Amino acid sequence: MKKLSLLTVFSVVCLLLFNVFILTCNVSANPDNITIIVNGEMMEFGTDANDPYPYIKEGRTLIPFRRIFEKLQMEVTWDNETRTVHAKNETTVMELGIGRKTAIVNGEEHTLDVAPEITDDRTFVPLRFVSESVGADVDWDAATRTVTITFLIDSPAKEIPGGPGGGTVKTYKLGEQASYGDKVFTVDEIGERDKSGRAVITGTTNFASTDMYVEIYSDIIGASPFKTQAYTSKVDDGKYVLRIFHYQASNTPIRKIVVLLPDDNGNKVAVAEYMP
Q1: Which of 149, 165, 187, 249, CA to CA, is 20 to 30 A from 43?
Q2: At residue 107, does pLDDT exceed 60?
């Protein structure tokens, strides 16, 4: 009897360890190996158990609802009693219910191919539908399993009265030095695609920054600019390397790059533009 009890305990422990291993793998795995790029920035998933990956169901990509709505600059709320997602911005009001294939957008009903659902205690919504409902363009690259979403940014860059160039944003050639207040920077080169498929734009600054952005304009007529963050890394006292990673720019010719920095009120404003 004692031997049986020990064997039973051992079996239970092994089973528990196995379940923990499986759960850990599920958290860290990207089941359908999907990449999602919004306005040139790749969304990251799987950072922890509360950040699940998107997945494909019946040929449609489902994504955690809060991640995509906030990325599309929409206010989002969850009604637990009715199990309904509510999202809105200045032009669009959307309602999606769990298990319901009818969504309501600006008071009109729309039929969904796949209903929103709850998976592992997280609410997922159909990516293409919610993106296109706010006016975004959605492309699917089956070869790389990549979804590319492009939408017009609500708050475009503003010109700075009395700023560089005297009332308008000054235009520079690649490699020329620009400044805004005590901030000095250059945009030097638009590189080739790196191994992950990104176009790498490089330059220099005299400051570390987490709030420097650029808008990238392509040669495609009617295309909206792509806004993305610029990253700096220190190489010497007072000297930093500037890197801008952009996926969409690797597929289209770049017409100009507009540099955005915060003004005294914290608003991101255009301070310089570079022409390739």
Answers
A1: 187
A2: yes
